[in-house]
Amino acid sequence: LVFHLFRRLAPRFPAFRLLCVGLHALPPEAHGLADRVDLRPFVAPPDLARIYAESAVTLVPSYVEGFGLPALESMACGTPVVVSNRASLPEVVGDAAPTLDPDDIAAWERTVTRILVDADFARGLSTRGLERARTMTWERTASLWLDAVLNRRRT
Question: What are phi and psi of 13, to 5 degrees?
Fold first, then answer.
């Protein structure tokens, strides 16, 4: 989805580049975008925070996702996020990010275009993302887990 989407958006946004972190089966050369796509199998955490903060948008079009940490990390950096409506992602982002069918390329194109051209929309997503990320702390997660374990033992 990401390469196909970028190929559709690239002519309208010539200054934008695509950075894909992780393993990717489809090389950018297959789409003629090699000069505007950067594939990185790994990015160190300090660099990742900088990349999120400098990005116009983070896309997480996963079909399967453990927790959705890339979406949460990106929101914590103030970057607008768009995620698929699968797995844990809707629960992670709440109302702070659009959740889309990962097979609906037209919906992804409309949403990303709106983020790139509508500063108020992008700013609203950024603000809601920062607020949402503040609620997802390790301390809160541990507390909820502990409460669940203790309540289960009592019943």
Answer: -130, 70
pLDDT of residue 149: 82
Lowest mean pLDDT of 45-49, 81-85, 120-124, name the range: 45-49
Q: What is the pTM of this model?
A: 0.87
The beta-carbon contacts of 28-35 under 8 Å, at least 24 apart in sequence, are 28/3, 30/3, 31/3, 31/4, 31/6, 31/7, 32/7, 33/3, 33/6, 33/7
- pLDDT surpasses 70 at 73: yes
Cα(99)–Cα(65) distance, rounded to whole angstroms? Answer: 14
Task: Check pLDDT > 90 for residue 43.
Answer: yes
- Three-class HEC string of the chain: CHHHHHHHHCCCCCCCCEEEECCCCCCHHHHCCHHHEEEECCCCHHHHHHHHHHCCCEEECCCCCCCCHHHHHHHHCCCCEEEECCCCHHHHHCCCCCEECCCCHHHHHHHHHHHHHCHHHHHHHHHHHHHHHHCCCHHHHHHHHHHHHHHHHHC
Look-up of token digits 């920062």: 130
* C-alpha to C-alpha distance for 65 and 69, rounded to whole angstroms: 9
